[in-house]
Write a structure and sequence with these properties.
The protein has about 425 residues and is α/β, with parallel strands linked by helices. The protein contains 14 helices and 20 strands.
Length: about 425
């Protein structure tokens, strides 16, 4: 049993306590029992939910592993993490799904909900054994890390997943249009002499995938499509139009596409190389409007750790990805707290991702699962990558002063992270 004292609920200045027993919220403001934890005047909220993280296990543990990745997630205030399947081997076997869940459950950090590959080996040719993968505990199906070039295979996958009540999540880029682009195609790429990845690569693929969903929807097939790391204004407008038609299409946006632009690549530092690439300020502003009006369903980090040596290669050869699951909430709250408001940011990182997945919406009511985070919304702290739980101890935001840092994360009624 745990009692967390000296905390406030969102929108209230009243100091309260919450008691947790057997993994559930027993109640509020009860007589103190069990281990007493001082919440330091922080604000309590449901633990965050991450729908898109690369934890690199199995086979790439020099970059990250379940222990480091889930510890980093807990330090970032996350209670649940959906891991991507582009590992080595690919997570396309029910036995791998089961082994990941079993290993993660014994670590005591954030909860793992592995995504499984949509196609065998993520080759885009033959569907994986989706029914068995779901039975093993897969949370969603995706070939993220690769794009789905075969439209017929994606259509069959959407049909099958729909019959299973599962979401298919897609990395929406046309590979032929993206080609060897290493950054956004535009004036900056031209000035730097670097191959560009045009916005049309994303928009064209989003349009194709929405058309597939529209056709299935017209036939009564309960297909659900989730578009990952949306980065362009044009693609968001296509999603808006799909939603207006009542199509079961959702999308996520990443904080790095909101807070960084292609101008950062003028440094030639591959720390800014991501896929899809950082776009223009106009795109970032459009995505922010989508967060305001509900066109964007949720926030996700696309936490993608690499070794420092890999990211020190030149832009043509370095891998894509930024690892920052530990500072996603402070970054969003510091940059956009006044623009979006605390309630909206928390919704985008808790209730909204749960809704995308069809999971029960998180709550702090008595009897609910005890997944919660205590946030320090006032104290400003510099970003110090040396303190990261992740193996990727470097970040574009190093040294930036942020507020909103988690003080305590509780998962299944147990302390998964406590700030020293």
């Amino acid at each position: 049993m745990i009692t967390i004292t000296n905390i406030k609920r969102v929108g209230s200045e009243k100091t309260e306590s919450v008691t947790i027993e057997d993994g559930l919220i027993k109640g509020w403001n009860l007589p103190e029992e069990g281990d007493i934890i001082d919440g330091q005047g922080g604000t309590v909220a449901p633990a965050l939910i991450e729908l898109h993280a690369h934890l690199r296990e199995p086979g790439q543990t020099e970059k990250e592993d379940l222990a480091s990745g889930l510890a980093a997630a807990a330090a970032g205030g996350y209670g649940t993490v959906v891991s991507m399947p582009n590992t080595s081997p690919v997570v396309d076997d029910p036995a791998i799904v089961r082994s990941l869940i079993e290993k993660a459950s014994g670590l005591g950090f954030a909860r793992l909900r592995p995504a499984a590959a949509l196609t065998k080996g993520q080759k885009g040719e033959e569907l994986a054994e989706l029914t068995y993968l779901k039975e093993a505990g897969a949370a969603m199906f995706t070939d993220d890390g690769r794009t789905n070039e075969n439209a017929r295979t994606l259509r069959l996958g959407l049909e099958t997943a729909g019959s299973l009540g599962m979401v298919i999540s897609v990395h929406a880029e046309d590979a032929s249009l993206r080609a060897d682009g290493v950054m956004n195609e535009g004036p900056v790429s031209e000035a730097l002499g670097l191959p560009g990845n045009p916005a049309s690569a994303e928009a064209a693929r989003v349009a194709r995938d929405i058309e597939i969903v529209a056709g299935l929807h017209a036939q009564g097939v309960p297909a659900r499509l989730h578009i990952q790391h949306l980065s362009t204004a044009r693609a968001l407008d296509l999603v808006r139009a799909a939603k207006a038609q009542g199509l079961p299409v959702t999308c996520e946006v990443c904080p790095h596409h909101l807070t960084l632009t292609d101008e950062a690549l003028r440094s030639f530092d591959a720390i800014y190389k991501v896929a899809p690439p950082l776009r223009t300020q106009a795109d970032a502003d459009h995505l922010l409007e989508g967060l305001k009006d509900g066109s964007v369903d949720c926030l996700a980090t696309d936490h993608a750790p690499h070794t420092r040596a890999e990211k020190e290669r030149d832009l043509l050869d370095a891998p894509s990805g930024i690892a920052y699951i530990e500072l996603a909430f402070p970054l969003m709250y510091t940059r956009f707290g006044e623009t979006l408001g605390l309630d909206r940011i928390l919704n985008l990182m808790t209730t909204a991702p749960a809704r995308v997945m069809g999971w029960a919406e998180p709550t702090l009511d008595a009897g609910a699962k005890a997944d919660l985070v205590i946030l320090d919304l006032t104290t400003e702290r510099p970003v110090n990558p040396a303190e990261f739980k992740s193996k990727a101890k470097f970040t574009p935001w190093a040294g930036e002063t942020l507020k909103g840092w988690p003080l305590l994360t509780v998962v299944d009624g147990k302390v998964a992270y406590q700030r020293a």
